[in-house]
Design goal:
Blueprint (H helix, E strand, L loop, with lengths): L2 H17 L6 H4 L12 E2 L6 E5 L10 E5 L6 E4 L12 E2 L13 E8 L1 H6 L7 E5 L2 E3 L2 E3 L1 H5 L3 E2 L8 E6 L9 E6 L1 E3 L2 E5 L11 E5 L6 E6 L12 E3 L5 H12 L15
Parallel strand pairs: 10-16
Antiparallel strand pairs: 1-12, 2-3, 2-5, 3-4, 4-7, 5-6, 6-7, 8-9, 11-12, 11-15, 13-14, 14-17, 15-16
Length: about 270
């Protein structure tokens, strides 16, 4: 997702043009207007199943968002494939992170799994990844992450008109998560929602909904897919979850052939 980078580039270019006496052509640089009545994400205290991913330790800015997904061994995360490069081993996940606090601990990634169609050609329909995290010793007992935080059940792609709530961390440090509830539409085959405020770092954040008649929370998408999640901060996409997403959970559970993920190329914005 290049939303934050794109905004910075526009600001720098505009400042440079003004400095040398050339007026910037605002219509050429400005984003299109958001749809009417587009809501805006707000900060809140977070949820235990969602957190930021740190590549270089908690003293450095975090990047993408991930969430705990239900699995037989209770040790898996879901994020966007374009967020991952290499094995992701040693990356750290801080569920429930807020203002620099880590109420549910810090968990270390051991392996990454992506669909082969992402590895071969970065097909945006398969822009999702499963990360395995190591258990921790808590009170001298080996403990899996899901036993501490709970987990969201991997669900199907959302239907048009369904309301989801996306919980995300924009890139930074010592910050709060944001959330927004919005109705889903479709852009070609890609689930889509509109809400202001999702910039760099929000990729991989889960689209959550309640499973009627249960206490379960389902994840129906993540920010990713088309244009690696979107070109503008007010429109976000997801790859459409199908049975192929379930096969990644199975492969990770069985420990079969973890991936060395190629770095993502251009998002096409």
């Amino acid at each position: 997702m290049v939303r934050l980078f794109r905004a910075r580039v526009i600001t720098v270019l505009t400042t440079a043009l003004v400095a040398i006496g050339i007026s910037a052509a605002a219509p050429a640089l400005a984003d299109p207007s958001a749809p009417p009545q587009t809501p805006t994400a707000t900060a809140f205290d977070g949820t235990s199943t969602v957190g930021p991913l740190f590549r270089d330790g908690l003293g450095q800015s975090h990047g993408c968002t991930a969430s705990v997904v239900a699995s037989p061994r209770h040790d898996l995360l879901l994020t966007a494939a374009h967020c991952v490069s290499g094995t992701a081993a040693g990356w750290q996940f801080a569920p429930g992170y807020r203002d620099g606090d880590t109420p549910d601990g810090v968990w270390t990634v051991t392996h990454a799994y992506v669909d082969p169609r992402w590895s071969r050609g970065q097909d945006p329909q398969y822009d999702y990844a499963i990360l395995q995290v190591a258990d921790r010793s808590i009170n001298r007992k080996r403990t899996a992450i899901e036993d501490v935080t709970g987990a969201n059940v991997l669900g199907p792609a959302p239907r048009a008109g369904q309301t989801i709530t996306d919980v995300a961390y924009n890139e930074g440090i010592d910050d709060l998560p944001i959330h927004c509830s919005s109705a889903v539409s479709y852009t070609a085959e890609f689930p889509t929602f509109n809400c202001h405020g999702y910039v760099g770092g929000s990729s991989g954040s889960p689209w959550l909904s309640e499973v009627p008649g249960t206490r379960l929370t389902e994840v129906n998408g993540i920010i990713g897919g088309l244009h690696q999640g979107g070109c503008y901060e007010y429109t976000s996409y997801s790859s459409p979850f199908t049975w192929q997403a379930d096969t990644l959970i199975l492969r990770a559970t069985l420990g079969l052939h973890p991936d060395v993920v190629p770095a993502a190329g251009s998002d096409g914005c």
